[in-house]
UniProtKB/TrEMBL annotation:
UniProt cross-references to CDD domains, sorted A to Z: RING-HC_LONFs_rpt2 (cd16514)
One Pfam short name: zf-C3HC4_2
Keyword Zinc annotated: yes
Disordered: annotated segments: 147-176
UniProt xrefs under PROSITE patterns: LON_N, ZF_RING_1, ZF_RING_2
Keywords from the named record: Metal-binding, Zinc, Zinc-finger
Species per Swiss-Prot/TrEMBL record: Canis lupus dingo (dingo)
Protein name per its UniProtKB record: LON peptidase N-terminal domain and ring finger 2
Composition bias, Polar residues: 161-173
Length: 491
């Protein structure tokens, strides 16, 4: 019939009359799911599993709840209560004694922690305070969780030599909950989870740790289950429950962890020291430079560029003795498209030139301390001479490109785009006119010659170099054409 509102009303009535009836909560969860009320769906599934932990159909359905995927499984593992989680006496005539065991404490805590609006309902079906026989003790009063020492703060009993945190009530009569830092350690970095992400196979890691592992292989680092779909979608949703528990009970440790992370990001975002270097091809200012990134070290490098917000990295050529070339070009990332195998296509464009002062390695890729290069400015008669040279070489470049065969033009245009227009002011850009870099990128030059021109800080010298190259290429083209014409005449 698909009358979900009516089904929800009926299920509510059943749950009010028989709060310990699993079927009622299950029907209510299904109705809520059809209505798209995900948070309430998860709550009702938790009720179902509390009352009947062997209900496999509910276990399967709870994993499909959007935004809360695997939250229940995380609770289940975290409190280490697989054998005693829901040992309930389900005799309706003895409701007042149903939760007089350790599992009542677990249920009271889990359901009360995230669904405080239902506190009165919880207290109506959990009339007895949780017992004290658990490995970890749970709150006797949910209000204590939020009101002690200000909002969201829980007093912690100081322990000199243990990383464990013990929560105490207002009266200090009995401990409420103890959390061990090791319960929230990432299995990869062995530090407190930061931005925890849970894989489809149920394992939780720091977001950055998981991404680095997936750079090398598309499998879960622990159970080796294939995670190709996760790689393709890049849908690394933060596990809300784990993050909230860490924030609530391990706030000091989380602050330290965040401070270390921020320091690392600040260091990576410096654009003159330890600049990430992609050793590959020749790049020029203002010219597009698409890249196919598949090596794990460069996957990490590109991701860090995006995370720091700089979206920039240097491009250098390899050098036989020095490792990387003396000069390079800074690139800015415009877009990153990731494929199911973890590789990606990076759309980047050159923005400025630099000289390498020193270089080293970091996590497999090169980094360098650099200084940026700008063209020397000229004035007076020298400027007038530069302007005349600029216009002349521009026209010479246009003529050369126009003389190319159509298929060659199409290849150049598809890769580098249209040739930029001539600037009215040749010194307006610190790196020089955009068209001059475009023509250098498309000319058939050896890398050694390209690198030498890239390092020039005199626009006049660079324009003269382009003129000489165009003259040589044009002569060769004319000689070749004359030879072809001569052969045709002889034939």
């Amino acid at each position: 019939m698909k009358n979900y509102e009516q089904a929800l009303q009926d299920a509510n009535a059943v749950c009010q009359n028989e709060p310990l009836l699993t079927k009622g909560h299950h029907v209510k969860a299904q109705a809520l799911s059809a209505l798209g009320r995900s948070k309430e769906v998860l709550k009702e599934f938790l009720y179902c599993l509390a009352l009947n932990p062997e209900c496999n159909s509910v276990k399967k359905e709870v994993q499909k709840v959007p935004l809360h995927e695997y939250c229940f499984l995380l609770c289940y593992d975290f409190f280490n209560i697989q054998d005693s989680f829901f040992l309930l006496d389900q005799n309706p005539s003895e409701k007042s004694d149903v939760f007089r065991n350790t599992s009542s404490s677990v249920l009271y805590f889990i359901l009360g922690l995230h669904f405080e609006e239902d506190k009165e309902v919880l207290e109506s079906i959990l009339p007895v305070a949780p017992s004290t026989g658990l490995k970890r003790q749970f709150p006797n009063d949910l209000e204590d969780v939020h009101d002690l020492n200000g909002p969201g703060k829980i007093p912690k009993k100081e322990v000199d030599s243990s990383p464990q945190r013990n929560m105490t009530s207002n009266t200090g009569e009995s401990p409420e909950l103890s959390i061990d830092v090791t319960d929230f350690e990432c299995a990869l970095c062995m530090r407190l989870l930061f931005e925890p992400v849970t894989t489809p196979c149920g394992h939780t890691f720091c977001l950055k740790c998981l991404e680095r592992c997936l750079d090398h292989a598309p499998h879960c680092p622990l159970c080796k289950e294939k995670l190709s779909e996760l790689l393709a979608s890049r849908n690394f949703n933060i596990t809300i429950l784990a993050e909230e528990l860490i924030f609530r009970y391990l706030s000091d440790e989380l602050s330290d962890r965040k401070r270390i992370y921020d320091e690392e990001m600040t260091e990576l975002s410096n654009l003159t020291r330890d600049v990430p270097i992609f050793v590959c091809a020749m790049a020029f200012p203002t010219v597009p430079c698409p890249l196919h990134v598949f090596e794990p070290r460069y996957r990490l490098m590109i991701r860090r560029c995006m995370e720091t917000g700089t979206k920039r990295f240097g491009m250098c050529l390899s050098a036989e003795h020095a490792g990387i070339s003396e000069y390079g070009c800074m690139l800015e990332i415009k877009d990153v498209r990731t494929f199911p195998d973890g590789s990606s296509v990076v759309d980047a464009i050159g923005i400025s030139r630099f000289r390498v002062l020193s270089h080293r390695h970091r996590d497999g890729y090169n980094t360098a301390d650099i200084e940026y290069l700008e063209d020397e400015k000229v004035e007076g008669p020298a400027y007038e001479e530069l302007t005349s040279l600029h216009d002349s070489v521009y026209q010479q470049s246009v003529s050369w490109f126009t003389s190319l065969q159509d298929h060659m033009k199409e290849q150049i245009l598809s890769h580098f785009g249209l040739m930029p227009d001539r600037e009215s002011e040749p010194q307006s850009n610190p790196s020089g006119p955009a068209w001059s870099w475009w023509i250098l990128a498309v000319l058939p030059l050896e890398r050694k010659a390209q690198l030498a021109i890239l390092g020039m800080i005199s626009l006049k010298e660079r324009l003269l170099a382009i003129r000489r190259i165009l003259v040589i290429i044009t002569r060769k083209m004319n000689s070749r054409q004359e030879l072809v014409n001569s052969r045709e005449r002889n034939n």
